[in-house]
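quick one, 176 residues, struct below
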Amino acid sequence: MASILGAYSISYKGLKLGKHSFDFEINNDFFAEFPEGEVKEGTLTAKVMMNKQNNLLEFDIVIKGKVKVTCDRCLEQFFLPIEYKGFLVAKIGNEEVEDQADIIFLTEDDHEVNLAQYLYESIHLSLPLKRYHGLKGSSIEDCDQEMLKYIKFEDDDQAEVDPRWQALKDLLNNNN
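---
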């Protein structure tokens, strides 16, 4: 793994049983390690509470910050606030098993767990399907007003209705 992503590792071998807290800063250098990703810029903080047990690590993870996305309305880029809360389990055993969703398998020889991939995927999963100015505390006034002139919204009261469709609607309403 690249040296930047190594900063997102937790060395658990020497830690006592019980809860331990870790903070990670996620920035543009982090996103540069994932060139295939949609997000290229952002500033976030990941707070990780690890509960170490015999042969089991439990992680409560909270990610807060903002990432740069493209507005679906005006196509301008803007910073969208995001928040993610997740739970991850790492099981420690003798055999190597393929990871599953929210479960990582570690061998007895492992001494650390790297959370970079999990953090990256969690950030992307926290993004809403529709992204636009005015969402989650961002400002709708920042939308490119020139571009909005070319867009008709579904709830636009001034939208012209084709007279043929209006005649069919009238016919349907008269039958009810």
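Helices lie at 3-6, 28-32, 116-125, 145-148, 163-175.
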